[in-house]
Amino acid sequence: MTACTLDVTVQSNVNPAALGCDLLDPALPADAALGYPVCRASIHTDLDGYAAAFGWIQVVRSTDTAKPDEYDIDPLALFRDVATPFAFFGIKPLLFDAPFRDQRYDLGWEAQAFLCEVPDGVMSHKVCPIVGFWWGFNVAGGSVTIHPARALDLAAWNGHQGLLAANYPDWSFDAAK
Q: pLDDT tens digits for 119-139?
């Protein structure tokens, strides 16, 4: 398993425009994302180049969806039609997410984020999980409560293998060890 550590922060969005949240839907009020969470996860490792080529896979579930008890893939909209499971991929890529809703109705939202590697130097479609974390938020009565990140047992990854395989049939997803 690849040796690396994460630095994860989940904090309140105090400046949505500086984070580009206003670009996602210009019809929304400029402060729609104010107070919702901003998550950043950076990778620290002595590896470099192809050996440090990692990807982030994030799954989310939310009470405002048709299946509130089920996780779903959380790609960047840019990659929705691209046959890759990764929301972010590159040399020591940063995970960034700033979810929000246009109205502050009651809901619960949670994410499981996994740092993964393609073990053969990015030559195949094989994914191996390295480390994971959980984070989320609730909205109740118009107030946003942010849940800080916490380490996630990699066994959680195994529960998402069917979802990943169904969405990305040309990829293989190793079980967590």
A: 888 889 999 999 999 999 999
